[in-house]
Amino acid sequence: MDATTIARSYASALHEIGERHEVADRFAEELQRLARLLLEEPRARHFLEAPTIDAADKKRALRAALGAEFHPLLVNFLLVVLDKRRQRLLGHIAAEYRTLRDDAKGHVRAEVTLAREPDERQEEDIASALSNKLGRVVIPHFRVDPRILGGVRVRYEDRVIDGTLRRRLIAMRRAMLSAELPE
């Protein structure tokens, strides 16, 4: 099984527990904090992932570091992740959990790429247009890539809407190069 499939299974189990105990949103926030910590603090990530460090020491450290701030059910979940030696997947589990929360709320996250920095009004217009088109509340994350020349590219779930000037110019070039010339 690949990492995403395994992470999705763990995230789904945690989401079910969170929903049952009405703490699913809290779990989402706390998982994101943990994932961010592991990205920003390589020593913490190395400590959890190092096979030479005893699992009991990792559990003690996790309880001490998170026990007062994180929900006890989430701390127990993290201890199970350690028991199963899946701590390398914590970032993936957090991402999959966020997707499950978004789905439960009717939200979808989208990466929106523009040629230049949008102003606040453009961001609102794009978010509104995407929400209308997709029939769900879109949470856009804007990126700037001058190579697209103009237009917009939207990635969400496993789909891409490419309305960039660059793509249109490339398509036009292909059409011109493949055109039959009259003799």
List keywords for this structure.
alpha+beta; Peroxidase, domain 1; 4 strands; elongated; 8 helices
Note the topology:
Layout: H1 3-20, H2 24-40, H3 42-49, H4 55-66, H5 72-83, H6 90-105, E1 107-114, H7 120-134, E2 137-144, E3 151-156, E4 159-164, H8 165-178
Parallel strand pairs: 1-2
Antiparallel strand pairs: 1-3, 3-4
Helix pairs in contact: 1-2, 1-5, 1-6, 2-3, 2-6, 4-5
Question: Can you tell me the CATH topology of the largest domain?
Answer: Peroxidase, domain 1
Strand order of the largest sheet: 2-1-3-4
**What's the total helix number?**
8
Give the H and E element order. Answer: HHHHHHEHEEEH
Strand content: 15-25%
Largest sheet: 4 strands, mixed
The pLDDT mean sits at 92
Q: CATH superfamily membership of the largest domain, which one? A: N-terminal domain of the delta subunit of the F1F0-ATP synthase
> End-to-end distance, in Å?
58 Å
Please tally the β strands and state the result: 4
**Structural class of the helices, strands and pairings?**
alpha+beta
Describe this structure in words.
By secondary structure, the protein is α+β, with helices and mostly antiparallel strands. It is built from 8 helices and 4 strands; from the N terminus they run H-H-H-H-H-H-E-H-E-E-E-H. The chain folds into 2 domains: 3-103, N-terminal domain of the delta subunit of the F1F0-ATP synthase (Peroxidase, domain 1), CATH 1.10.520; 107-178, no CATH class. Helix content is 61%, strand content 15%. Strands 2-1-3-4 form a 4-stranded mixed β-sheet. Helix 1 runs antiparallel to helix 2 and helix 1 (3-20) packs antiparallel against helix 5 (72-83).
